[in-house]
Amino acid sequence: MRKLCNVSKVFFSLKINSVKKVILFICFFSLSYGSFSQNLVLNEKEYFETPGLNVWVFNNEYNGMFFDEKTAGIELIHHGVRTVTGGAIRLQNTPEQWDLIPKMMSRKVDKANNTIEVALRYEEFNFDSKVIVKPKGKGFVIDVVLDKPIPKALEGKAGFNMEFIPTSYVESNYLVDGKAGTFPRYPASNTEIRPLTEKIPQFAGHTTFDDRGRNEFIATLPLESGKNFIFAPENPERTVKIQSDDLDVMLFDGRNLGQNGWFIARSILPSNKKGKVMSWYVEPNAIPNWKREPVIGFSQVGYMPDQKKVAVIELDKNDTVLNEASVFKLSADGKFVEKLKTTVKVWGNYLRYNYAQFDFSAVKEKGLYYIQYGDQKTNTFQIEDDVYSKIWHPTMDVWFPVQMDHMEVNEAYRVWHGKPFLDDCLQAPLNHEHFDGYKQGPTTDTKYKPLERIPGMSVGGWFDAGDFDIQTFSHVSVINSFVESWEAFKVTRDETYIDQKTQFVDIHRPDGQPDLLQQIEHGVLNLVAQVENIGHPVRGIVVPNLHQYHHLGDAATETDNLPYNPALKPYESNGVSSGTRDDRWAFTNRSSFLDYRTAGALASASRALKGYNDELSAKSLALAVKLTNEAIEIEKKAKPDNSPMSRWGKGSDMIATLQLFLSTKEEQYKKSFLDKIWKLLDENLEFNMNPALLALPAMDDDYKVKLRAYVIKYKVKTDKENAENPYGVPVVKRGWGGSSQVINWASTNYYIHQTYPDLMDKESVYQGLNYILGCHPYSNLSFVNAVGNRSKKVAYGGNRADFTTIAGGVVPGLIFLKPDYLENKDDWPFFWGENECIIDGGAWYVFLANAVNDLAKEK
């Protein structure tokens, strides 16, 4: 009897729990239905929209060079934030960046039937599919249609995926068929090992997984599976419902394979079927009458008293511009008091938002301030005479030392990385298509055989960006810019200990030498090593395996640091060499373009290094002359070339001869420069203006007068282009952010102002810097890590898996996603186009910051 009572209690308890689950499930569905807003409509920009929600259907395509950049397929802009991407037919549960992507064959927008249809193809498998999206109720339906059944090789593999960015969903809940779960903050779901024969090959036979020779791969398993999902029901801005009548929907965590993975909803397409094989109903919650909060763009560093001060206010297209805004100042008693209240000027529409401008230039008193617009209040900023004086210090003190290749880099209690790539490099194999744009042609153009070791290369250079390769053209740009900073401003700051002999760097430790000269030396050492050991500058030096390329952490562990020895087995070592072929490869096909550009950098460096490292200075100049002469001979034998790279490299000979003239004062180089510069300015004014201005101090008055006419044309052209946006700077629309373009535009304006102050005022220089420091679209964060009151919290550096930054790095900024969206995420570091700091961008920023400080001295 007692036992029977216990059984009854258990049964009754189970019934109550089941009822609770049903009630919970109904409540969440009711909550969702109750809060969903008006129906989606297909707008003139060819995407579906309602307040709080945009649904893109392949407005942006997958990239054939970098494959899955998480910027393509069916995507959601959910209450102003892009949270979902990659809605497409995919061949893996959790696709990685370099997995195969579908090619969009066609895109049909049918306004009469309110549908968008895309045709997708996997050429490798002769597999075609159609994805059709149509609004229904408060959401939309996704149908997958096949004209033929799935190929046998893709059965159980081809499926429809939608990817949800983890930072919008971690620590939120989900419901699957009424059962509650939690999106994990860190991946800890199940995986299994499968034989390599079952794996869909990745791009060009590369692999992101080091299986240690075991011929296997990791397959992710689902967190959950069911017919009805609700994501983030407790967060109305992120709630999304997915319903599938026939096929199970599985939820995966892509971070098990790569830290840049997303949460993925996926249904496997059925085998042996054609016609409509899958149908999802997707209903993202749209808060009724939702409006995006205004973003007040301003400089996070602050302003100088007499500087022009204009905040740009970014508004939802359904918002109304307020008449006035105010500036408040911190008073002596610790309270903020209103110092200015003035009219807000309507600017108009740009892309998807409306804009207004708030000019508070009348505020000149030094102190601490904030701006208030309606209910929006900015963080505080300064008005001081020397507000820009230190803004470049983190870039030179921290970021560039951390980027130094072949060096152990220490900072106080922390070792940023050990001595990497002491194993030199190998000659890249012939006719090889690599990743990240690297290719080796049918010849090596060197004395080395494919995969033969190239000695003497473990010296100097910087990691190009967030990965650990050496890109020669980036080095050229950095060296040229650093020399400009040295010659224009004599930047003598010393906060870094650099010992080339022991290959050791210590941050925040002065060593009696200007850091700028030491960095120039470090870059030149690698260029000289290329010319002396390889025979000419090379496209770049990069790891051979894709599973190395995505390496995160200490660069010294990307290889075993032992030279490759083909006599040993893989992973075998004799203590001085290794049978593991992990040494970086040099991609060595020669071009006159790179010879000229490297010659220009070495010639300019020879001037800066004179008196600091005379031996390296003399060697740099001699090699610059040698490379220039050899490039001339190469061009004589070259076939006509109208490729994009050739067009981009046009004028490289002019740059080499300019730098050689500035270093040698020889008339032959001056004549060569003058023979080329005017035609190049006629062909591409903006691209060639900077070298034309650099030549000014060494030229006569006739040159100055002639160049003035080009400067006038340049200003008219750029003013017209920049007037198209409310920030008055060159905003580029592409998949790599435009911070560098703005910095270089402002730096060119500085050079113009120095010689033609009547044509270009210094405000155009400040304007470019203030854009980088926070007066830009999307947010008002400073794009320079750790500079300004509020700056980027994450960036795409070697430490990106830790969701942090390296101080002083300059992020690319805002990418453009068609048709109307600018984005720079600060919660997801893995968007390289938005967040990857590059060495030339850092060097250009150092120049601009010093240029602004130079202008501050003007009366």
From TrEMBL:
Positions of the Cellulase Ig-like domain: 293-376
Top-level taxon: Bacteria
Residue numbers spanned by region Disordered: 561-580
GO terms of molecular function: cellulase activity
Pfam annotation, one family: CelD_N
Domain Glycoside hydrolase family: 458-793
Keyword check for Hydrolase: yes
GO BP annotations listed: polysaccharide catabolic process
Keywords: Carbohydrate metabolism, Hydrolase, Polysaccharide degradation
Entry keyword annotation includes Hydrolase: yes
Family: Belongs to the glycosyl hydrolase 9 (cellulase E) family.
Protein name: Glycoside hydrolase
Organism (species): Flavobacterium hydrocarbonoxydans
